[in-house]
Amino acid sequence: MGLRDWFRGSKKTTTILPTDIVVFIVGPSGSGKSRFMSILLQNANVHVKVGKGQRPGTTEVHAERCQFNGMQSDIVIVDTPSFCTYMKPDGEKVVRKWMESNYTEPCKMATMLYMHNLAFNPEDANLRVLNHLGVFRRTCRRNLIPSIIHVVPTLSTGATLSDERLGILTAQLQSQANDAGARLHNTFDGEPGTAWDVIQELLNVCEIGKQE
C-alpha cells in the first residue's frame, strides 16, 4: 500500500490542539526539510493549500494539519527555518514567535525529524545535531519539548560520494544521534514511499510509548 492510501486529507492550521500529534522538521539550511515535507504532502488524497500555490519560504514556519487513515488524532507537520545561519531573519526568533502564538499547551505527542545532509562538512560545528537541538529546545517551553527524535540522513541531488565515504559520514551521524538520544533512520532518497516509511516509523514509536 502506497503513501496515497494512508492519507485522507489535510487542512491548514496554525494552532496546536491537545489531541494533536506534532512532527517538527528541523535541520540546517540545505538538509532537505521543505523538500521532505513537499514530497510527503504531494499526493492525490492530500488536500493542501499553501498561499496561492507557492512553496513556503525557508525563513518561515510552515505548518499543515493532516488526517491519516486509521488514526483518530490529527498529525500536524511543522517545517521550521534553519538555525545557526547568523543571517536575517533569525530562525530561532521566528520559531519562538510561532511557538508563543500556536504551541503553548501540551499536545498528545510532540516528535521531531532532524534532517541532515550527508554532504555537509562534518567538521562544521554549526551543523552538529546537538547544536541545533539545543537551539530548538530554547524556543520551547520546558514541558513542550519533543520527546521522540529521529535523525534522517539526506543527500543533495547530484551529490557523488563513494560508498566508503557515505559509510564514514553515516557512522559520524550515528554517533551524533546517539549523543542526542535520538534514533537514526535510513537515508531519505526523495521517494514518497520512503517519506511515508520515515513518518510511519516515527508514529509507531509514538504508539509504543503510549502503551508503556
UniProtKB/TrEMBL annotation:
MF annotations from Gene Ontology: GTP binding
Pfam families in the record: MMR_HSR1 (PF01926)
Entries under InterPro entries matching the protein: GTP-bd, P-loop_NTPase
Domain G positions: 23-109
Residue spans crossing the bilayer: none
Protein name (record): G domain-containing protein
